[in-house]
Design brief:
Helix content: 10-25%
Strand content: 25-35%
Largest sheet: 6 strands, antiparallel, barrel
Number of helices: 2
Number of domains: 2
Distance between the termini: 26 Å
CATH topology of the largest domain: Thrombin, subunit H
Order of helices and strands: EEEEEEHEEEEH
Structural class: alpha+beta
Radius of gyration: 17 Å
CATH architecture of the largest domain: Beta Barrel
């Protein structure tokens, strides 16, 4: 797969509008690392990493979100987390021009298993499914941010993958890729890239 022509808007809360303090990065395919077991038909291993060179400069508008420090899932059914994105808010219209944020509830993965006949529940989080309160087209890849009950820090626990064809249907949650499950792969890619950078 080729990904030339992609770009990132960093530090921005609005699309297609110039703001103070934002930067735009243009990417080529050598900077994007798709999981080697990604399956577009089965919707498994739906995760990728992006290498930014030079690294980001943190500011009032740009800051990191922590990765979980354990591979065991720490988010439990019933917990509330935040998801953000520029996706459509009516299911059929264009993406939003401003970044949206939504508080969503984590469900038992069996809900998604039986709703979508999705057997690989070990790699997902089942989230949302409330009437007119869910992610939609254009939100894929958005992060699920949850506050740790042990140390209080905000962590990236999930990434929006897919849901029902009509957004915001009651009883039809969204499937997220579970970040703790993918930590070994994430760390292996990061180690490899750090080694290449040091030897270059």
């Amino acid at each position: 797969m080729r990904y030339n022509g992609l770009h990132l808007r960093i530090g921005s809360h609005t699309r297609n509008i110039n703001e103070d303090g934002i930067s735009i990065r243009y990417l080529n395919s050598s900077q994007i690392y798709l999981h080697p077991m990604y399956n577009i038909w089965l919707k498994r291993y739906d995760i990728a990493l992006v290498r930014l060179d030079p690294p980001l400069q943190y500011s009032r508008k740009v800051a990191p979100l922590c990765l979980p420090n354990i591979t065991k899932l720490s988010v439990q059914p019933g917990e509330l987390c935040y998801v953000t994105g520029w996706g459509s808010t009516n299911g059929i219209g264009p993406p939003n021009t401003s970044l949206k944020q939504l508080l969503v509830r984590v469900l038992n993965n069996d809900v998604c298993k039986y709703k979508y006949f999705y057997s690989a529940t070990y790699m997902i989080l089942c989230v949302g499914g409330e009437h007119k309160r869910d992610t939609c087209a254009g939100d894929s890849g958005g992060g699920l941010m949850c506050q740790s009950s042990t140390n209080g820090r905000w962590e990236l626990q999930g990434l929006v993958s897919f849901g029902a064809s009509t957004c915001g249907q009651s009883g039809f949650p969204t499937i997220y890729m579970q970040v703790p499950f993918f930590l070994p792969w994430i760390q292996s890619v990061m180690r490899e890239q750090c080694t290449l950078w040091r030897n270059s």
